[in-house]
Amino acid sequence: MKVRAIRIIQEALQTLGLYRGSIDGKRGPVTNRAIDAALRQRSADLPGTWQQWSARRKAVAFFQLLCKDSDIEVGPIDGLWGPQADFAYDALTHLLDQGAMPRPWRDRKPLNINPNGWPRQKETELIDFYGRPCKARLVKVRCPWTLKIAWDLSKKVETILIHEKVADSLERILVNVHEHYGDAEIKRLRLNLYGGSYNCRKKRGGSTWSNHAWGIAIDWDPSNNRYNWGRDRAKFDDPEYDAWWRFWEEEGWLSLGRSRNFDWMHIQAAKLTDDCDQSAQRR
After folding, report:
1. pLDDT digits (tens, 9 = 90+) for 11-56
2. How many structural domains comprise the chain?
3. Is 203 exposed, middle or buried (0-12, 13-18, 19+ CB in 10 A)?
4. pTM above 0.90, yes or no
């Protein structure tokens, strides 16, 4: 079992007055005896054979009961740790840490429209639409708020270097973001931390060109939305960023985080397709 799960069990047993040991995440004899006592109090919620289970299985069963008590769907109380128990563990720890249940991410789909006609993320289509990589016609778009370079906060910038074909769209997005959030909120949400746009380079670990080589991708607040982080850790999945994403998606821009649940810092003016999803993972 996970150490955090055992700690949660020990804390619950302590609350019930059944455990006086350390909250150390170690399931020893004292913890096991307390679990037995707790399960005897809940025998009506258990299969008739529960007393024949191993100590570990009893511990899992008690953890399942704790999840059920918090209205978290955990499946049958069978003492088996599978995918359902993993889901319940994530939900319960989020509830304990944040005071609320996590949002059901499967119910949140990014807006998939393309009013500006951005091409698919295939190199031939990107070249047809934007020209050759590293030879893009770039322009500077002024940001309505002051940006700080994410990896050097002492440096400030006022503009974003971007492909001329996406400049008008970007300007509209930035104006909408500023009008909606305002300077103070933008700073609090770290939307002033700029991770870069145009960069003449290949995809990470790949041989094809990055979207940054056309100046059609922008990174924001990289330290809180790291490349390999999913929605469980990335700040950009928090509800307070819903308007931020709406402004981008209304213009047809695509978030790899919202679409593929990785690289939440990255936004691009190119659409994904089934035959390019794999390459997108290295952008």
Report:
1. 999 999 999 999 999 999 999 999 999 999 999 999 999 999 999 9
2. 2
3. middle
4. no
Question: CA-to-CA distance for 276 and 274, rounded, in angstroms?
Answer: 6
Domain of 21 in residue numbering reads as: 3-102
**Residue 132 counted as domain residue:** yes
Tokens encoding 176: 């909408």
Do the Cβ atoms of 113 and 252 come closer than 8 Å? yes
- The label of the residue with tokens 């994410």 reads 150
Do residues 198 and 234 both lie within one domain? Answer: yes
Question: What phi-psi label fits residue 159: left (phi over 0), alpha (psi between -120 and 50 degrees) or beta?
Answer: beta
| Tokens 């002051």 sit on residue | 146
Residue corresponding to tokens 């007393």 = 51
Sorting pLDDT into bands at 50, 70 and 90, what band is 104? low
Q: How many CB atoms lie within 10 A of CB 123?
A: 13
User: Which CATH number is 262's domain given?
Assistant: 3.30.1380
Residue 108 within a domain: no
